[in-house]
Design a protein that fits this description.
The chain has about 400 residues and is α/β, with parallel strands linked by helices. The chain contains 17 helices and twelve strands. β3, α7 and β4 form a beta-alpha-beta unit.
Length: about 400
């Protein structure tokens, strides 16, 4: 009975491996959610909003304190939506959504027509494909290739990117910092993408949800909308959940010039119309605070995640996996080929099921994020956005692979 557009997707890989983790008592390094709470300031503000009677529908574009806080945050960082750096109107340019996971399909359905093409980098967050299908558009893929030498990042082929642009290309979807590889796109890579968007008159949808989770000062997040010629052709998407460990609050947003904001809102008003009002007030408080002083909370979790990443990478290497470089997000990709050969396992799905069932550590098989499945089969994704004790327990269990 499932509509054809969704029948091929089946159960979400995140739901599947979280369920398997519970079933087998595994440490859950599969789904990317922290196992600790967010900042008290946000919670106090949300509770105060509940007690103050903010119980009715929020405005479709978001409660004014939140849209203003988002506009001020991006203006303070020099963002431009076509009116000059730092000139952001919360009414015209900001749209609050039910997490970035709603902002994505709202943007895709509000922008793309049947037959339009959109360029996606693989591996991709699986919502990208589902949203493209909802919009009845056609994806064209550019592959991020795993490094062949230690310490190198995932890279793409310039010719493949150039060839992906056709007269039917309406948009390109960029995710930097990148899930699941942990890649931070360099300025040279972004300038190439920007030049092609300008040449072919293409809109860039930039998924920046991990914008504050980078670990190498030499590799900062560079918003593509800040590059010459991109301010009036970029829709920037982000959310509260990744930065402040409040994934269940589902507070996301888009930032775009008015004509592109209209695209997002055209679909958003008929998908959710608005998100939970008290949580928007809580989000406003923590974003406002972050704009006016350095966030101790964000600095603390960056330090925790970088430490977790390094410990987990060392542990994976010690049991025969090859971890790849992760400069951002809270994900670590590793090559499991050597261990799988020893265990007689065929691919990433078999390896992740074995790891959950027999070792007691849940991870994600990345082929679900690829159109070119062969690129994902040797890989496995771990989420390190956990308490130190959780990572330590996972490392202890991973030791069983030595046997």
């Amino acid at each position: 009975m499932v509509a054809q557009r969704f029948a091929s997707f089946g159960e979400s890989v995140f739901a599947k491996f979280t369920r398997l983790a519970v079933q087998h008592g595994a440490v859950n390094l599969s789904q990317g959610f922290p196992d600790f709470d967010g900042p008290q300031l946000a919670k106090d503000a949300a509770i105060a909003a509940i007690n103050a009677g903010h119980a009715q529908y929020a405005p479709m574009i978001g409660v004014p304190p939140l849209t203003k806080a988002i506009a001020e945050q991006y203006a303070s960082r020099g963002f431009d939506v076509g009116h000059g750096k730092g000139v952001i109107d919360p009414v015209q340019h900001v749209t609050v959504t039910c997490g970035c996971s709603e902002a994505l399909p709202a943007t895709l359905m509000g922008l793309l027509n049947a037959g339009d093409e959109i360029i996606l980098f693989e591996p991709y967050f699986d919502f990208y494909i589902a949203g493209t299908v909802m919009a009845n558009a056609t994806p064209r893929f550019v592959s991020l290739h795993a490094p062949t030498r230690a310490g190198a990042p995932f890279t793409f082929d310039e010719k493949q990117l150039r060839d992906a642009f056709t007269p039917r290309t309406k948009a390109i979807l960029l995710n930097t910092p990148h899930n699941p590889t942990g890649k931070v796109y360099t300025r040279d890579e972004l300038e190439l993408i920007a030049s092609l968007c300008i040449k072919h008159n293409v809109v860039c949808i930039s998924d920046d949800v991990y914008e504050h989770l980078t670990y190498d000062p030499a590799l900062p997040h560079i918003p593509i909308s800040t590059l010459p010629g991109m301010a009036d052709r970029t829709i920037t998407l982000s959310s509260l959940g990744k930065t402040f460990c409040l994934t269940g609050w589902k507070v996301g947003w888009s930032l775009a010039p008015a004509p592109l904001s209209a695209c997002v809102r055209a679909a958003h008003q008929f998908i959710t119309f608005s998100g939970p009002t008290p949580l928007q007030h809580g989000a406003a408080a923590i974003i406002h605070d972050m704009t006016h002083k350095p966030s101790a909370f964000v600095a603390q979790i960056r330090s925790l995640y970088a430490s977790n990443r390094d410990k987990l990478a060392a542990a994976l290497m010690s049991v025969g996996l090859t971890p790849h470089r992760s400069d951002s997000t809270y994900f670590l990709m590793a090559d499991h080929s050597e261990v799988s050969r020893r265990l007689g396992l065929d691919d990433d799905v078999a390896f992740c099921e074995y790891l959950t069932r027999e070792v007691g550590v849940a991870s994600i098989p990345p082929t679900v994020f690829y159109d070119t499945k062969s690129l994902g089969k040797p890989l496995v994704r771990f989420a390190y956005c956990k308490k130190e004790a959780t990572i330590d327990e996972a490392i202890k269990r991973l030791g069983a692979l030595k046997k």
